Amino acid sequence: MAFSLLKVTKPKPLDLSVSRSFMIFDSVVEERVGLMDQDPSPPPELFILPEKPKPRRDQPWAWRWNPWPPRSVSQSRCSVPPLLRRHHPRQLPLATRPEPTPKHLYAAVSGALLSYLSFGFSSNLHFLVPMLLGYASMVFARSHCGIITFILSFGYLIGCHVFYMSGDAWKEGGIDATGKHNISLSSRLVISCAINYNDGLRKEEGLRESQKKNRLIKLPSLTEYFGYCLCCGSHFAGPVYEIKDYLDWTEGKGIWSHSEEVLSPSPYGATIRALLQAAFCMALYLYLDLQQGGNIYFIWSISEASIILSGLGFTGWTESSPPKPRWDRAKNVDILGVEFAKSSVQLPLVWNIQVSTWLRHYVYERLVKPGKKAGFFQLLTTQTVSAVWHGLYPGYIIFFVQSALMIAGSRVIYRWQQAVPQNMDAVKNILVFINFAYTLLVLNYSCVGFIVLSLRETLASYGSVHFVGTILPIALILLSYVIKPPRPARSKARKEE
């Protein structure tokens, strides 16, 4: 089936679920791009365990022979140790709880140690550069520290992409300490910290709710800053979280306040659920060879379990009776939501959830002028930023531009669906199915660029199906100017809000 193509090309894991990818392109891609031989069966050597690679000085033990792919081994080792050691003192009596400073030191030292064990000493130097640049900008140029840190961190990441060509390493089955899973994650933490410190100078009247919640009035100490950036529970695989939440967690404030009146939720049930999910995903990856979903689901699930167990993943209580704890801060993927998304608009809400939230708060919303609504320009710019963050390969740029078109086209179908009268449920259900089929088609089409990366192979793959995944969204966007559905009527209470 389609996964024979994925085995031959040894692609890099996608940032969108492609367990259903390529189902409509198999034969045409084989013919046009020439990635497969005439014999449709995979070569016999693909089923032989890899030879033991030569040890590398900069990777002391991450490359020891193992039948698991090296990148999965290294990332798993970055996530499993925090899980085993993250029984946080939040469960201890109040008198024995450690002060915040030891927690920050533990987070920084353990994160740096895991980085060294997996990628060598040079990886910590790469993390140190954007961290120090960001902190220096907060100290010496607070009024502009957000944009300065964004430009410097982004520029350093681009330089690493150019020098190390991390996409080639991933396509060959290797791993790169400077790739998207490492410096890009720490850069997001550095940038969000600087922007929130910059927001501390602004009046609350001109801020969004998320900006009011996350803004920093006081400069974090170096110990707090390094603990936040290197916290071992999310240093390599995510999730991205805010420094305000990290400080409240370590200091026992807000929803983590230590008092007899505040309930102390037990993390064990949610942790076990995340571990079972991780085990199931790894079983799919190992035994069914679902290379493009199982390993990413596994890594994120392990990371989620470690953050939940530490207590940082707690986000409050539900309004049900009795109330139940919510552990949404560590959730990075909704597997069923990804696999059965009804529209393209839902995909950023269920895949790489915390990074999607970061992009919305620090790129998308900040491009919208006060009193104006976001449009296609803000969406395209956000997707372009995400593309460059992954690397400078043409396949990345094309994929994320395609995703912007895909989401815009899906919004058009959704607006038509909302305009259908309530007594015409059959028509509305047909539009729901059309949106689902549209998402499936354009997503599978677009993902080719993310896998092959090169411009020639991407265009050849798209051309093999007559660029249907590009033409269809553009046609829907243009058609929306001709068929303009009426805006759904809002209730009086909603208008008053």
Automatic annotation (TrEMBL):
Q: Which domain of life is it from?
A: Eukaryota
This protein's UniProt keywords:
Acyltransferase, Membrane, Transferase, Transmembrane, Transmembrane helix
- Compartments where found: Membrane
Q: How does it sit in the membrane?
A: Multi-pass membrane protein
Which coarse location class describes where this protein primarily resides?
membrane
Q: Name one Pfam family in it.
A: MBOAT
Q: Where are the transmembrane segments?
A: 105-133, 145-164, 270-288, 295-317, 393-414, 426-453, 459-483
Q: Name one GO biological process term.
A: lipid modification
Any idea which GO molecular function terms this record carries?
acyltransferase activity
UniProt name for this protein: Lysophospholipid acyltransferase 1
